[in-house]
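Session log. Operator J.P. requested a structure for one protein chain; no other inputs attached. Running the standard single-chain path with token output.
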Amino acid sequence: MPAQGGRLQRPGVTELRLSAFGPHRGAAFALGPVTLLGGASGSGKSQALAAYEALAALGSGATLEEAFPDAADRIPDLAVPDADGRRGFRIGCTVDGPAGPVRLDLAVQAEPTLRIVGERLSQPGQILLATALRDPGRRSVQGAWLTGGAIGVTRAPLPDDRLGTALLPLRVAGATAGQRQVLAAAEQVVVALRSVFPCDPRPGRMRAPVPPGEGRLLGDCANLADVLRRTRHECGTRYALLAAAARTGCAGPVAGLDVRAPADGPVTAVLDRGPGRPATELARLGAGELRFLALALVLLTGPGVLAMDPAAELLAAQQALTVLADGFDRGLDRRQSAELLRLALMSCGRGHVRLVAAVGEETAAAARLLAGVTVVDL
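Structure written below.
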């Protein structure tokens, strides 16, 4: 990834912290361009991805209820409520980029009422934003952020159901050096968190022909055929790379990928089996083959082809898309998993894409031998 003086230039999450979240206590995971979460079933891989996804949703402006629809399930195991019956969890991350490393830490009360009870945005040796719940009877927290100059700190109430960091660009004028520092740090965090695409292809939803649409891939990849139609017309290079990957990840001869899109009918994707052989509709492929094709397409594409809302403050070339994939190797054989890792290293090596994925122990063991892959053992 392009850097000056070793500094990550496109904002990216370089550490995920689960101080108290589900089965995790005091956990901190370093994240690289390609990060695989390995471990036995029940080790907390899905919980770690859920924490990252929730932070991404909050950075995009979601409410706590939208980010944590199952908040009670995120309370640490064996957590004991206090005298007022309150229990919750704590998560955080570090985002590196042009502003330097910025830490975001969040304390959430899940019971009896879902709300933020504390948030801290900081850089080494300096707190930029701190919030605290002062009055449980009010639906707000008291916020204080760096101003600099004669005032020093600005204090004001903030909602207790939204991420204060995401609201700072609307509240801070940027008139002083301190305010500009706060804005740069907050915007860096928001850009990194908004540039996230959670992906879990569901083969059962990918088999039916789909109506033509915008060609933006959904998180379950149900509209894969329509996205292939768009990609074929708009980006021949990516389409050729995907066809080449299909020759490795799909059984039988594969001459290429094709799309049938009648003017008044649904879109159907097929594998071209070569001269003299009938094409195979994607609906007839195995579940592993469908997941493989969908994940390969995600790794080879960008935000403009994915159903997501990247930060509009920066050009696409200045952002790094982060793909979150639970069960990355689910239903795949060794050949398919190896090819996806090759595509991930190729795409992530260019700096425009990052991958954080949960995998099985076999894939994690194979990935430890690959340069450029960060394997986190849970």
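Operator note: The first strand starts at residue 3 and ends at 4.
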